[in-house]
Amino acid sequence: MASFHLDDGTLTVSLAGESVTLLPKEYALFAYLLNHPDRTLSREQLLDAVWPSEHPTDRTIDDHIYRLRKRLRHWSHSMMIETVRGQGYRLRLNTEPSFYGLAQHDQEFVEGFRKLIGKYHLYGMGSAMLTIAAHQDVLGIKMDRFYEVYVRFVSGKFHWIVDNQSLSFWEEKLPYLLILYSYVQSDHEKTLYYYQRALQSGKLSAGWQHDLKTELVSLYLFLGRLEQAKQGIEALKKQLATTDEDICHYLFVLANELKYGLITNNQSLLDKAQQQVDERLARVPYLREQGTHAVLKGMILLQRGARAAAVSHIDEGLNTLRFSRFAPHLIQSVRSLLFFLEQYHHDPPLLSAYTALWNELKVTYRFFDLEQKIRRELHAYL
């Protein structure tokens, strides 16, 4: 099947090294069709998906389908938008000649590719991961299933994950739904309930259980359950060795420890945890973690009264996260920053500025729609 790559930021569709930039509604329509391949979709379904708050006519769909066919006609060998008379439209992805045969059977090549994508993941280089995802056809090899989903999560294609019915719910979908729900849902008690149900189910892999327990500490901090947060941090630190392979996880735990220190105003803890962060980032300068911890360092400086230096660190961190192309980490950092400003540091101009950024993220990633869709799925399974 054709491996299309969509970039929500630029509204660009790519295949085999070629790209086409679409208008917003054209892009949204093609993205929805691509998420439902080989399914006949009525005009009503398409209108609800792409124009949820508007009142366009069936003619609007027909016009946009016509334009999409025209804009993407040079990929007619790979895909076709079919008219199903009296029912609607269907995206047909054509089977293409396999470019993967030789590479997929070359074990050295496959292992080298896996190590490469793993290193980009480890170093927080989202742009590199997205580049590989967009050019798999040209490179002659497919990503592992995990990265096919993870790259979408990293790049902010959250609706692709939520809407995709082909994913295994417990292993490929639920962990992402829980993490996203913690971003878009302001009722932290409700989020905690779903986290606990998932962890008690016994259906998650050991790796996902560890990741969700780490996320759980953040929830405890938001809820003011400081003793539970402290216990969670201590338990996670005991589990993690400080080898290079575990440093990114250890840095995430340290991020929660810094948040705990900020909330409790424990200056000695902050100094100790910050020193541990600096030592590890000096050894392995993971881009994603550099951004996250620059924002946290700015929050510490705010608490200590160094406002100008604090704002410089925060903005540098947010820019680093944007550059890394790890959308979830950017969202999480802004969310933590707002929590700190709202609860523990009175600075109306800064609160206003970063609230505006949060509102931009809410619109860009359609938080309201995500919250409704995720809640329905979590309620059905948990």
Which SSEs are present, and which pair or pack?
Layout: E1 5-7, E2 12-15, E3 18-21, H1 24-35, H2 43-50, H3 58-71, E4 79-84, E5 88-93, H4 101-104, H5 107-122, H6 126-134, H7 136-139, H8 145-154, H9 158-163, H10 169-184, H11 188-200, H12 206-223, H13 226-239, H14 247-264, H15 267-283, H16 287-303, H17 307-324, H18 327-343, H19 348-364, H20 367-381
Helix pairs in contact: 1-3, 10-11, 10-12, 10-20, 11-12, 12-13, 12-14, 13-14, 14-15, 14-16, 15-16, 16-17, 16-18, 17-18, 18-19
Give the beta-strand count: 5
Number of helices: 20
Which sequence of SSEs, written as H and E, runs from N to C? EEEHHHEEHHHHHHHHHHHHHHHHH
Q: Number of domains in the coordinates?
A: 3
**CATH topology call of the largest domain:** Serine Threonine Protein Phosphatase 5, Tetratricopeptide repeat
Oligomeric organization of the protein chains: single chain
Side by side, the strands of the main sheet go: 1-2-3
**What is the end-to-end distance?**
34 Å
Which stretches are poorly predicted, pLDDT < 50 over at least 5 residues? none
Query: Which bin fits the share of residues in helices?
Result: 55-70%
CATH class of the largest domain, anyone? Mainly Alpha
CATH superfamily of the largest domain: Tetratricopeptide repeat domain
Q: Give the biggest sheet.
A: 3 strands, antiparallel
Average of the residue pLDDT scores: 88
Proportion of strand residues: 5-15%
| Structural class by SSE content | mainly alpha
Over the alpha carbons, how many angstroms does the gyration radius reach?
22 Å
Q: Provide the CATH architecture of the largest domain.
A: Alpha Horseshoe
What general form does the structure show?
globular
